[in-house]
Specification:
The chain is an alpha/beta fold. The protein has helices spanning 47-56, 69-77, 90-99; strands at 2-9, 12-13, 22-29, 32-41, 61-63, 81-83. Helices cover 25% and strands 29% of the residues.
Length: 118
């Protein structure tokens, strides 16, 4: 079983890893979601708190927008598969991860006509 974490901003992947306060965790295996995805609201944005959560939750995959090199290297060292610089809705990102087709730097097609509000 693998676990995917996506920092959220509304219906979209948060543009910055360190500023997200809403987190989605999805357990999956063989392209299928296991159980209900969980949403966690953090009290305040915290890059270190988010890294700690990723380690404690045994996250195997991370999809995010921008991430600082320090955190990227730490999580890669912890053997987390990181898909960074991804832009689009979290639903499309989950589908791509489940199908094994998500790469870093992907702009998901459905996000072209959508509006991201701050």
């Amino acid at each position: 079983m693998r676990k995917l974490l996506i920092p959220l901003q509304g219906d979209f992947i948060a543009p910055r890893f360190d500023l997200a306060t809403e987190i989605l965790i999805v357990r999956f295996e063989d392209g299928e979601i296991l159980g209900e995805p969980r949403t966690i609201i953090m009290e305040r944005p915290s890059d270190e708190g988010l890294c700690q959560m990723i380690v404690e939750e045994n996250i195997t995959d991370l999809v995010c927008g921008g991430i600082e090199e320090l955190h990227y290297n730490f999580l890669a060292w912890k053997k987390v598969a990181i898909h960074d610089a991804v832009i689009g809705s979290w639903q499309d990102a989950v589908k791509k991860v489940l199908s094994g087709n998500l790469e870093s730097g992907t702009i998901l097609p459905s996000s072209v006509n959508s509006v991201l509000t701050l």
